[in-house]
Amino acid sequence: MEEGIGLIGFGEAGRTLAVAGDWAARLRVYDIQTDSAELRQAKLSEYRAAGIDGRDSLSEALDRATVVLSMVTADEALAAACAAAPVIRAGALYCDFNSVAPQSKRNAATAIQAAGAHYLDVAMMAPVQPGNLGVPLLISGPQADLAASSLTALGFSNARVVGNGIGRASSIKMVRSVVVKGIEALTIEAMLAAEAAGVRDEVIASLDASETRAGWADRADYNLDRMMVHGLRRAAEMQEVVKTLEGLGVAAVMTGGTVRRQYEIGRLGLKGPCPGLAGKLERIGAELGRRA
Hints:
Elements: E1 4-8, H1 12-20, E2 27-30, H2 40-50, E3 53-54, H3 58-62, E4 65-70, H4 77-84, E5 93-96, H5 102-114, E6 118-124, H6 128-131, E7 137-140, H7 144-153, E8 159-163, H8 168-197, H9 200-209, H10 216-247, H11 253-266, H12 277-291
Parallel strand pairs: 1-2, 1-4, 2-3, 4-5, 5-6, 7-8
Antiparallel strand pairs: 6-7
């Protein structure tokens, strides 16, 4: 039997990568939307427009697949793995590209591995467009090296193995998102307030003037130092920022969290010498654990 590729999910990521690759002839796709009377025809039209072999069942999509790519919504990632387990071929590589917590990936791995297939934790570290097959991928799991080779053979040009533990790749992505998505949320909170106060241009100019080229290790070290030494004072200042935003009619969702974090670290009283980021994290973590 000809070996093939199975794709679970035909949303933006699945569609983009399937079209970008030169493996359409080996590809079979299943998307849960074809089970819906209201959504089925639209999804079938997408298959036809992309020249993709869409199947009516997961078992049809996976019955000859030695590599399975799961690209569904985060809330469906575990369900997709559990549904794939009874029909996946023994020895197949199940590459879970979904953006979910490491715990969720380990739960999905349990189902796939019980079926005799190999589960891979894959994290896409940038939007799939415009990167297409060049999107940065982190891979972890017991068969990570084999998966990296298989994905490279499919045209993925920026895949990197980060370990053999399932959940390691997704941990990197999830924790990174604290900063990346957090900055996005902080941005809208600040810009709405700046606009309401009529000071947008001045705020942006001030931010530009204070921008640093330091790497994140140095920035994190500096930021923790400021919080350890001045956290209580900064918490009080940020409480006034909360009042400012509320007075402008902007909900201080992110800023309220900043007050709590600054106070939490400041009240530890860790003002003595503590060189380096690793030393600070060890000391803060130990003290927070002691007080928990």
